[in-house]
Specification:
This protein is α/β, with parallel strands linked by helices. It is built from 9 helices and 18 strands. The protein has 3 domains: 110 residues, Periplasmic binding protein-like II (D-Maltodextrin-Binding Protein, domain 2, 3-Layer(aba) Sandwich); 83 residues, Periplasmic binding protein-like II (D-Maltodextrin-Binding Protein, domain 2), CATH 3.40.190.10; 87 residues, ACT domain (Alpha-Beta Plaits). The strands form 4 sheets. Strands 1, 2, 3, 4, 7, 13 and 18 form a 7-stranded mixed sheet that branches. Strands 10-9-11-8-12 form a 5-stranded mixed sheet. About 4% of the residues have low confidence. Its EC number is 4.2.1.51.
Length: 306
């Protein structure tokens, strides 16, 4: 993906995370392509600094092939696009922000147990990102059952935590091991050899449609009248009538301050938002929504790079 020299890219840091790898896959090595990495310690922080014009791009994880959705990302998108509060610093509704998806990357996930402990029986606690535990639980329960699990903002931050402590370990990538100079005790502890995480690339500017529509995916978010029977069904039927394929639907609780047990829905579909049938489906669906946002159309990228 082309990036303008001098651009800034936010990612879930520090250096050595899988998010860092996704940035390199998307844009190349920073020094070679003359862009700046901006290390953030939360997914919401990555997206918020893009909204606030502090960076030009943000790269965040969306879902994992073993452990499913990264709800931190879905919730951050919900809060940014659907909150009714106002951004006091800019004086504009948060839901009027301009930000969109322009790409995706798939990163092969090879989790390692990283520690200065000489053996497993010396480990008293293990640190990692909360998304990781479900990706390594088979190995963990067989080899470290009962050992305390502690959440960290990222996998690389977990390795930072255990450096110099021979009673602690981290679960992270071999890249994080090299970055922080902490050895790998056990490599490849993931439940699946084909474990991968899908990342989305966000930008302030939408990219022009360069390929055929069927090479694109589009993601939208919306809300419906929860008390009206069939309201969600009518939204979905709008796409069926136009023969638009839906590949993913998610729901998350409405933002704080909303009516309890009501939801924001996220929908991923095949095609570009400017395609005739997709545009017609979106316009029809919008009639049945109380609120809808098009989060972006982006070229599908099925390459897996280990």
């Amino acid at each position: 993906m082309y990036i303008q020299p001098g651009s800034k890219v936010a990612f879930l840091g520090p250096v050595g995370t899988y998010s860092h790898q996704a940035v390199i896959q998307a844009f190349g090595i920073p020094s070679a392509h003359q862009y700046e990495l901006v290390d953030k310690r939360s997914i919401k922080g990555c997206l918020t600094c893009l909204v606030n014009d502090e960076v030009d791009y943000a790269v965040v994880p969306l879902e994992n092939s073993t452990n499913g959705n990264v709800n931190f990302t879905w919730d951050a998108l919900r809060d940014l696009f659907h909150k009714v509060e106002h951004d006091q610093s800019k004086g504009v509704p948060v839901k009027d922000i301009k930000m969109g998806i322009v790409g995706e990357e798939f990163v092969g996930i090879k989790h390692c147990l990283i520690t200065e402990a000489p053996s497993l029986d010396k480990i008293k606690r293990v640190y990692s990102h909360p998304q990781v535990w479900g990706q390594v639980d088979w190995w963990y329960h067989e080899n470290l059952n009962g050992v305390e699990q502690l959440d960290c903002p990222s996998t690389s931050a977990a390795v930072e935590m255990v450096k110099g402590d021979p009673t602690s370990a981290a679960i992270a990538s071999i890249s994080a091991s090299y970055t922080h100079n902490v050895p790998v005790l056990v490599p490849n502890i993931s439940n699946s050899d084909t474990n991968e995480t899908r990342f989305l690339v966000f930008s302030k500017e939408k990219r022009d449609k360069l390929y055929k529509g069927d090479e694109y995916n589009t993601i939208i978010s919306f809300a419906v009248e929860h008390e009206h029977p069939g309201s969600l069904c009518r939204v979905l039927e709008s796409f069926a009538k136009q023969n638009v394929n839906l590949s993913n639907i998610q729901s998350r609780p409405q933002p704080l301050g909303s009516t309890p047990w009501t939801y924001i829905f996220f929908l991923e579909l095949h095609g570009h938002e400017t395609d005739g049938e997709v545009n017609a489906a979106l316009e029809d669906a919008r009639v049945h929504c109380t609120e809808m946002h098009i989060l972006g159309s982006f070229k599908r990228n099925r390459a897996i790079r280990n």
